[in-house]
Amino acid sequence: MAVYDPPAQDSGTFAHIQWGTTMAPIYGKITGWGAYAPGHIVTNHDLERTLDTSDEWIVQRTGIRERRIAGAQETTSTMAVKAGSSALAKANLPATDLDLILVATSSPDHFTPPVSSQVQAALGASNVPALTIVTGCTGFVYALVVAYQFIATGAYSNILVVGVELLSRFLNWQDRSMCVLFGDAAGAVVVQATDQPCGLKGFVLGSDGSQSQHIIMPAGGSARPFSADVLAEGSHYLQMNGREVFKFATRVVGPASGQALQHAGMGIEDVDWIIPHQANLRIIQAAAREMGLPLDRFVVNIDRYANTSAASIPLALAENLDYRRIKPADTLLLVSFGAGMTWAAAVVQMQPGAE
Ligand code: UT7
Does the C-beta of 175 come closer than 6 Å to ligand 1? Predict the structure, then answer.
């Protein structure tokens, strides 16, 4: 485990504020990636047997054909550990050498303890700081941006970033408007400090809490603690105003992408792949139209996994790196939106010079 020793401070100044100006820039390279999706596949046709729904409706409205559902023995932390272990193995980095673990999720094993600490213990990363980031579907992009800040300041050199979601345990399986939309999965990357210019080139993060009612678990928190009434109403389940979220998503994806590119000093032509949050194929198609790009510049896997929230982008990234569709030298635009309401876009140049 690398322990961070802050440099000696001049009186009256904060050492970390000086780092950016006095040190050579430190970049962050994605050296490892991994994904995990449970083996149990539930198709739209399977759902037709228990719900008043159809494969045709689901495919036309969302692009989803099937989703993965976690087994009874699986939890959010066990899925995160599988994806995280693969990413560490690919990076050839022992968990004990990590400086920080970030886990993005809205479906933790428990409210307390933080799931990030459970992941840290299960990975055997003794005493490594661990932080859970809860920004809904944007969680992985938020976490990745946070990781790059720690790298850029020189505070940490080896960071594991996981996006994981087990939303099937928070859905009402009698509510056809919700349960057909989501799936369970995890994805992870290892970001390591390097002096090679690469990594996070530009980003934008945003939040508009005034619209937070559009994606909500109304009960089970401090505003409305769990009770027999809550159970009878089912207000502990995830609820969403799909039409409002759809409008919000189509409003933010284009501008957030444009702002992140502008921040990076790049144009869309400099980007090899756009990896959007996989919530609805129609939202991705609308983004492609708005950006004037063919759909084949976008990574799409919603047909096989449905909406896996904070896991959707790292799952798509890891899977396409494994298939070598995305090359380790590529430049990526990651763009997401979700509960909060939040949005996040990041331009990431992976490993220049890599094959
Ligand atoms: O990751 C978090 C972000 N989430 C999102 O981005 C989701 C964004 N929203 C959406 O993707 C879409 O709004 C949905 C896919 C959720 C819904 O599509 P929609 O075209 O907005 O449908 P709708 O909610 O307006 O419902 C249209 C009809 C309704 O029937 P009536 O009232 O017109 O008779 C629904 O009851 O479709 C009905 N419906 C269904 N029918 C068959 C709703 N769910 C289903 C279903 N099967 N599963």
Answer: no
